[in-house]
TrEMBL record:
Family note: Belongs to the 'phage' integrase family.
Positions of the Tyr recombinase domain: 166-363
Protein name: Site-specific recombinase XerD
Recorded GO MF terms: DNA binding
Source organism, top-level taxon: Bacteria
SUPFAM superfamilies: DNA breaking-rejoining enzymes
InterPro entries cross-referenced by the UniProt entry: AP2-like_int_N, CB, DNA_brk_join_enz, Integrase-like_cat_sf, Integrase_catalytic, Integrase_recombinase_N, Integrase_SAM-like_N, Tyrosine_recombinase_XerCD
Gene3D superfamilies for the chain: 1.10.150.130, Intergrase catalytic core
Organism encoding this protein: Cytobacillus firmus (Bacillus firmus)
Annotated ranges, domain Core-binding (CB): 63-145
GO terms of biological process kind: DNA integration; DNA recombination
Keywords in alphabetical order: DNA integration, DNA recombination, DNA-binding
Any Pfam family: Arm-DNA-bind_4
Length: 370
């Protein structure tokens, strides 16, 4: 049974209970209520939880969010990939904790959390970034629910409304010509990076993991069986990403020229030439990493000396897919070549292209029937 008393200008409740973990008597108290009625309402909720044996919820209700988020990262961080852990650490320490860290687990309301999300929108963060932050926070709260630190996750279904202009991350046919002309005027290893990404549609990490043994010049194919990041080499993300794709005569010629270029550089640098098993390398044999590929594409765009859209290496993958579809390739072929898990995924990503050609094909059908 709760007891109440007035302390100065505010009210306090006190509840005595037996801790089921130790069998010893304990006391739960809270002050600062403006009226006795307010204290009675909250005390009734706490007693209800005691009755339902939710002692751990009550014990953890005073936990500060930043303490739980830090503990969650330490305990469960090892269960995810290094890049995922890095992203979680970054967003938690640079966005979530600075804004919400000092709230108690039971204190942060849905409205306050919505205000936090709205602030991210107002600051101009991309919708995908905000969704990532929200997902990380909800994952941590869901674990707290599982551990009976809180009763439920009240932050699910939060509204994230971002009016984003469609960002262009691909090149048109004319822009591809300008881009590749600039690539040809760049160092040869820059050109080969652009050529591989544009003519295969493979992901940046898949290209970085390529070895010469993955190229079959006779059959004109490339086998994509792994991916490489700054954290090392690992298997492709999905089963469908493990694939062998055909390559055109232009890329075959480029790769043969690149192989000869590497041999000349090896002779030129002699003992100073770096040994590596990977295909994409600098003139001195050093491996190129993720950041190096980004810098390469940026360098080519600058060399183009015209108003090309600023695309990422992944933008060349998009460009390849769009050129495939525009040239008449069907969705199944494009999906398998890109290593998508389903045709639906390809259709969803390139819906603007598929809708365009749906109209064209309907007009063709109408003409045929007429």
């Amino acid at each position: 049974m709760a007891s109440f008393r007035k302390r100065g200008n505010s009210w306090q409740y006190r509840i005595k209970y037996i801790d089921p973990a130790t069998g010893k008597p304990k006391e739960k108290s809270k002050s600062g209520f403006r009226t006795k009625k307010e204290a009675q309402i909250e005390a009734a909720e706490v007693e209800k939880k005691f009755y339902l044996r939710q002692h751990s919820v009550i014990a953890n209700s005073e936990t500060i969010l930043k303490d739980w988020l830090t503990e969650w990262l330490e305990i469960y961080g090892a269960q995810c990939a290094e890049r995922t852990l890095f992203n979680r650490f970054w967003y938690i320490n640079n966005h979530i904790i600075p804004s919400l860290g000092n709230y108690k687990m039971n204190q942060l309301t849905r409205i306050e959390y919505q205000k936090f999300i709205n602030t991210l929108v107002e600051k101009g963060y991309a919708k995908k970034t905000i969704q990532t932050i929200h997902s990380i926070f909800c994952t941590a709260i869901n674990k707290a629910v599982e551990l009976e630190m809180v009763t439920h996750n009240k932050y699910q279904g939060i509204s994230i409304k971002v009016d984003e202009e469609e960002k262009i991350n691909y090149l048109s046919r004319d822009e591809v010509e300008i881009f590749m002309d600039a690539a040809k005027k760049s160092p040869y290893h820059h050109y080969i990076i652009a050529s591989i990404l544009l003519r295969t549609g493979m992901r940046k990490g898949e290209m970085l993991a390529l070895k010469w043994e993955d190229i079959n010049f006779e059959n004109k194919t490339i086998s994509i069986t792994k991916t490489r990041s700054d954290n090392g080499v690992k298997k492709p993300k999905t089963k469908s990403s493990n694939r062998t794709i055909g390559i055109d005569n232009t890329l075959i010629a480029d790769l043969k020229q690149y192989q000869l270029w590497q041999k000349k550089n090896k002779m030129k640098h002699g003992a100073d030439y770096h040994k590596s098993e990977f295909l994409v390398r600098c003139p001195n044999g050093k491996e190129i990493g993720e950041y190096g590929v980004n810098k390469t594409i940026d360098s080519i765009l600058k060399k183009a000396n015209t108003n090309l859209p600023h695309i990422s290496p992944h933008g060349l993958r998009h460009t390849h897919a769009i050129m495939l579809l525009e040239s008449g390739a069907d969705l199944k072929f494009a999906s398998e070549r890109l290593g998508h898990s389903t045709i639906n995924m390809t259709a969803d990503v390139y819906v603007h292209i598929t809708k365009k050609y749906e109209t064209v094909n309907l007009l063709k059908l109408e003409s045929y029937l007429s």
